[in-house]
Specification:
Strand content: under 5%
Number of domains: 1
Structural class: mainly alpha
Number of strands: 0
Shape: globular
Order of helices and strands: HHHHHH
Number of helices: 6
Length: about 160
């Protein structure tokens, strides 16, 4: 079964049996930084949030529904990412699932979402931008600190 969304290929995945790009080929190199940043953003979930928020805005008294929709997608994000980035024989991309969840929260905060409506005195739009910048800078640092390399046998040892 192929991936439903791109899986981030880290240095530890290069040449590892079972690791594969969405096209099905075994990765030959680590994804570049900008590619990884884009792949950590759960674009499907952000799109669902934006579409749902548009519908919720049409309701009378939308505030509780904004929080319910946000909470629902907050739970869905790691599950969707874990399932969508896994192909047969691959381990779950737990870091990518966690990073996608953090990125989702940052995007909702950046858009304003329920935070802006519930906390109008303390929420300011520039804060959302700063949170997005911070998450973009910190996710790769956390990746380096938290994702342990997998020992990959040398070419001669695989036979």
């Amino acid at each position: 079964m192929a991936h439903l969304r791109p899986r981030v290929i880290l240095a530890r995945d290069v040449g590892r049996k079972g690791a594969q790009h969405a096209e099905g080929a075994r990765p030959r190199r680590e994804d570049p930084y900008l590619v990884r940043v884009v792949q950590y953003i759960p674009s499907e979930v952000v799109a669902a949030y934006v579409a749902g928020s548009g519908a919720i805005a049409q309701l009378s008294g939308p505030e509780p529904w904004e929080w319910i929709w946000f909470g629902f997608l907050l739970v869905v994000t790691p599950v969707w990412t874990a399932v969508a980035t896994r192909a047969k024989g691959e381990p779950v991309a737990w870091f990518q699932a966690g990073a996608a969840t953090v990125a989702f929260v940052a995007w909702v905060f950046g858009l304003g979402g329920p935070f802006a409506r519930s906390f109008p005195a303390s929420y300011e739009t520039p804060l959302g931008g700063l949170v997005l910048i911070a998450v973009t800078l910190l996710v790769p640092v956390c990746e380096r600190l938290l994702v342990r390399p997998i020992a990959v046998p040398e070419e001669d040892d695989r036979e």
